[in-house]
Design goal:
Strand content of chain A: 5-15%
Largest sheet of chain A: 5 strands, antiparallel
Shape of chain B: globular
Strand content of chain B: 35-45%
Radius of gyration of chain A: 26 Å
Oligomer: heterodimer
Shape of chain A: flat
Number of helices of chain B: 5
Radius of gyration of chain B: 26 Å
Largest sheet of chain B: 6 strands, mixed
Largest interface: A-B, 43 and 42 residues
Number of domains of chain B: 1
CATH architecture of chain B: Sandwich
CATH superfamily of chain B: Cupredoxins -  blue copper proteins
Helix content of chain A: 55-70%
Number of domains of chain A: 3
Number of strands of chain A: 9
Strand order of the largest sheet of chain B: 14-13-16-21-18-19
Order of helices and strands of chain B: HEEEHEEEEEEEEHEEEHEEEEEEEEHE
Order of helices and strands of chain A: HEEEEEEEEEHHHHHHHHHH
Distance between the termini of chain B: 101 Å
Structural class of chain A: alpha+beta
Chain lengths: 388, 354
């Protein structure tokens, strides 16, 4: 390639960007006069409300298109004096902490309102006030224990199905594999539903929660697909490669899912919802035993896998502990949504991998074990979900 | 080669994504920590903050544009001339506007519609039988009128003769009957025109003057600053909590006469509760015999009452809406009662000026 043609290519690549920049500068600058129509409304979002000693703390974010001042705070629509840190002027996307001295009552619902300089009041309702958790050694250990109960132990129990699966005929084995697909499919849908719910209730519209969930799910799917195919390629000379790598991907996918479950439990404890969190713990423990099964199913035809299995159990189960810590101490709707969407994308990738793997060996997709297995898997998960 | 490049690309993309995500998750990283200041609320709770205090209840910052203290004892008697037949003519020029943005509570800016530039409009005061001429000028962008309560001809009622933008109208009627009335814009939708501030008090004194007293005007109103059909703020004389942080000075054993007008929109009932003493009250101020002796007064939209009371003991006394929602959203005030000789004499007695 000659020097001049390289130059031409560079110009043709840069020229549209330069022109676009000029257009934007024009619209924001001198050309803006004829584009002034409509009204710009300020908007703030109360992201988080914490109840501490004789004080209600509100994390507020400017989610509107213009700067705002937060000028009045109220509790249950009654004006209260408050402090706002670092100051009451919020530029776009900036957050501030509003501290309202208030002798709140535990377990009672509160509507917290903030009024902006144009007189518009924004509100968030807390169903029940509970003291916010402060991370100390005891609580960190407590959450780790919950994560163990929910994540590691049930998954490990599920792995004990290995000898049973090993004894199965081809048809029955495929049935249980399909059963696993059913379980996983349900988990993915469950994660997505949870993500949409959090986005609806806790994330400002500005952040396009729905699109974020879709985007992260798809990115995770393709990203993990890429990684797992690399993994399979690298170990293609070994006969056990495909099942092991699929198991590993199942474990990773379930790991992300369990991170989401840990978040849910941690957040429930963090919000003081102890009855709910006990129930969640029992529910997830039962539920996650089936996840162990999903990891073990692809591995049944391989030999001497016990150490690998243990590692995979840890990969799948341990994230529940991290989830509980994050959910309990630093709950953020943004991170929760991202983790849940990653979990969903990871599971979709796992399902596709299992199907592709089995299709290569048999006529899997149109077999009765698949149909029966998926149906039963989904059904079992639906039933357990009712009790969670 | 190609693979390592694309791996690098992927890594860079991941880093960018992670950093931008973290920015949104944990945006508040306070860099400079100033010396914290201690902040004590009216309920006695105390916090230390490095930030700003937003406290409309204990406000002590710059005075706002509208000063309720000046409005409190300000009566507009008009330009006075005596006609050939001995009738007193009082002329007023009232201008309506609807484009002002006013700071109604510290930091809260609201589009007020005004008579003579303020909410409430001037307190118009005359003596029974006086001829009143109101030269009304509409400088607003919408039609407005002035509808006076009281006895007058139909065409002076300010209801059917809308005055368009830039228009003028002269209302003419005799001050009748004696009492405490009000005026407001009567253009549809009336609720909107009143809620934005087009109203004021109108007092007709009896020919035989009332007993001298420290006379105060309280126009009970509210502000729906976000237009959801509910008041965000309540007040006596527009500014929420004003007389809470600026108590009204009166003196012991001095007759106080309060002209109370309820022009609250959106809420059917407002009330008035006085601490530390009781008042005689005169509905619409039309009768010379009080209809009760009480410390509570319930008023519907448009109701007026004249209250007469004295304090025996000095000190700080509240008066407020006993609808506590209203009081906790601004309609809470206080009297600072001092021994009689401590109060400046020029505050006492409002003899009609002729």
């Amino acid at each position: 390639m000659s020097q001049s043609s390289k130059y031409k290519i560079a110009v043709s690549a840069v020229a549209p960007i330069v022109l676009l920049t000029i257009l934007i500068v024009f619209i924001l600058g001198s050309g803006s006069s004829f584009l002034q129509f409509g009204t710009v409304l300020p908007e703030i979002y109360l992201e988080k409300i914490d109840f501490v000693d004789s004080e209600i703390q509100v994390t507020v974010r400017n989610t509107g298109p213009i700067d705002v001042n937060v000028v009045v705070a109220d509790v249950n629509d009654r004006i209260q004096p408050a402090a706002i840190e670092p100051d009451n002027h919020l530029t776009r996307f900036e957050t501030a902490l509003v501290r309202i001295p208030y002798d709140w009552n535990e377990g009672q619902p509160y509507a917290i309102g903030l009024t902006t300089n144009d007189g518009t009041r924004f509100e968030k309702v807390v169903d029940a006030a509970f003291p916010s958790l402060q991370p100390d050694g005891e609580l960190v250990g407590y959450f780790a224990l919950i994560g163990m109960y929910v994540g590691i132990i049930p998954v490990m129990i599920g792995l004990l199905w290995l000898p049973f699966i090993k004894k199965l005929s081809q048809n029955k084995y495929q049935f249980f594999l399909a059963f696993t697909i059913g379980l996983l499919l349900f988990l993915a849908l469950d994660s997505l539903e949870e993500a949409f719910e959090i986005s609806q209730n806790n994330l400002a519209d500005t952040f396009n929660g729905t699109l974020l969930i879709g985007m992260v799910t798809i990115l995770t799917f393709f990203g993990l697909y890429f990684v797992s195919s690399q993994l399979i390629n690298k170990t293609k000379f070994s006969k056990i490669s495909a099942p092991v790598s699929i198991s590993l991907m199942v474990a990773i996918g379930i790991g992300f899912h369990n991170l989401g479950e840990g978040l849910a439990i941690g957040a429930a404890v963090g919000l003081g919802n102890l009855a709910l969190s006990t129930f969640l713990i029992v529910g997830f423990a039962i539920h996650n035993t089936t996840e162990g099964f999903a990891i073990v199913a692809p591995l049944s035809k391989t030999k001497s896998v016990i150490p690998k299995l243990a590692a995979m159990g840890l990969i799948a189960g341990t994230p529940a502990i991290f989830g509980a810590w994050i959910g309990g101490f630093f709950f953020s709707p943004f991170s929760a949504i991202i983790f849940l969407a990653i979990g969903a994308g990871a599971i979709f990738q796992v399902i596709i991998s299992i199907i592709l793997w089995q299709r290569r060996e048999n006529n899997f997709l149109s077999s009765w074990p698949l149909m029966l297995g998926i149906s039963l898997g989904l059904f079992v998960m639906y039933i357990t979900s009712i009790f969670i | 080669m190609l693979r390592s490049q694309s791996t690098k690309m992927l890594a860079v993309l991941l880093v960018i994504f992670a950093v931008s995500t973290l920015y949104f998750i944990f945006p508040t990283i306070t860099v400079a920590q100033e010396e914290p200041k201690t902040f004590l609320t009216h309920t006695g709770l105390m916090i230390k903050t490095t930030g700003e205090v937003i406290d409309p209840i204990g406000y002590s910052g710059e005075p706002l544009e509208f000063n309720p203290d000046e409005f409190l004892r300000d009566f507009d008697y008009g330009i006075v001339t005596e006609l050939d037949d001995g009738t007193i003519l009082r002329e007023f020029t009232i201008t309506a506007r609807d484009d002002q943005i006013m700071e109604v509570s510290p930091g809260v800016f609201y589009n007020v519609w005004t008579f003579n530039g303020s909410v409430p409009g001037p307190t118009i005061r005359a003596t029974e039988g006086d001829l009143i001429q109101i030269h009304f000028i509409n400088e607003g962008s919408k039609s407005h009128t002035m509808h006076f309560h009281g006895v007058h001809k139909a065409e002076m009622d300010g209801v059917f003769e809308n005055v368009g933008p830039g228009g003028q109208f002269t209302y003419e009627f005799y001050a009748d009957p004696v009492g405490l009335h009000l005026y407001h814009c009567h253009v549809h939708p009336v609720e909107e025109h009143i809620a934005h501030g087009l109203y004021g008090a109108y007092i007709v004194d009896p020919k035989e003057p009332r007993e001298p007293a420290d006379e105060l005007v309280f126009v009970l109103n509210g502000l729906d600053t976000d237009f959801d059909g509910e008041n965000n703020f309540y007040a006596a004389n527009t500014i929420p909590f004003y007389y809470k942080h600026h108590p009204i000075q009166i003196s012991t054993n001095q007759l106080v006469r309060a002209y109370v007008v309820n022009i609250l929109e959106f809420d059917a009932v407002n009330n008035f509760h006085l601490h530390g003493t009781l008042f005689h009250h005169f509905p619409a101020g039309t009768d010379s015999v009080p209809s009760g002796f009480n410390d509570m007064l319930t008023m519907s939209q448009g109701d007026r009452q004249i209250l007469e009371f004295e304090y025996e003991y000095p000190g700080l006394y509240m008066f407020h809406a006993h609808v506590t929602e209203f009081s906790e959203k601004g309609w809470v005030s206080s009297f600072l009662v001092k021994e009689q000789n401590e109060v400046k004499s020029d505050l006492i007695g409002n003899e009609p000026v002729i």
